[in-house]
Design goal:
Elements: E1 3-12, H1 16-32, E2 37-42, H2 54-57, E3 64-73, H3 76-88, E4 107-111
Antiparallel strand pairs: 1-3, 1-4, 2-3
C-alpha cells in the first residue's frame, strides 16, 4: 500500500512562478530517493469556511494563495528511508536555496491510505 506525505502552504501570489521553479528544482530530489509521484496544486477554488478552512489553517493573507501538495511513495519504509536522505541532501538546504514562502506556516503529515480506488 502506498504512503502519502501531504502539505498545505500559503504562497504569496507574486511568487507563483518562483514557487513553480522551486518545485521543479527540488521535487526531483524526492523522486531520486524513491517517491513515485509528486503533485503541487495551486489553489483555484478554496472557499472560506464557517469554522475552519485551508486559508485559516495556514494563516493565508489576502495576497497569498493556498497550495496543496503531496508526495506518493511505494510504502512507508521507502518513505522513511527516502525522506531521511532528502533531509540530509545538501541540495535541499534552505540556507542556500530558500523557499519562496513562509515554511513556518506549512502544515504537513504522513498518511497511510485506507481506501484506494
Amino acid at each position: 500500500m502506498p504512503y502519502i506525505d501531504g502539505f498545505v502552504i500559503a504562497v504569496p501570489t507574486a511568487n507563483k512562478q518562483k514557487f513553480i521553479d522551486h518545485a521543479r528544482q527540488f521535487d526531483p530530489v524526492f523522486l531520486e530517493y524513491g517517491a513515485t509521484r509528486i503533485l503541487e496544486c495551486w489553489g483555484d477554488d478554496v472557499p472560506d469556511g464557517t469554522q475552519t478552512d485551508f486559508r485559516r489553517a495556514v494563516q493565508a493573507t489576502a495576497d497569498e494563495a493556498v497550495v496543496f501538495s503531496w508526495i506518493e511513495w511505494p510504502d512507508k519504509a521507502t518513505r522513511d528511508a527516502g525522506m531521511d536522505k532528502v533531509m540530509k541532501d545538501p541540495r535541499m538546504d534552505p540556507g542556500s536555496n530558500p523557499m519562496p514562502f513562509d515554511g513556518k506556516r506549512m502544515i504537513y503529515g504522513g498518511f497511510a491510505p485506507v481506501v484506494e480506488l
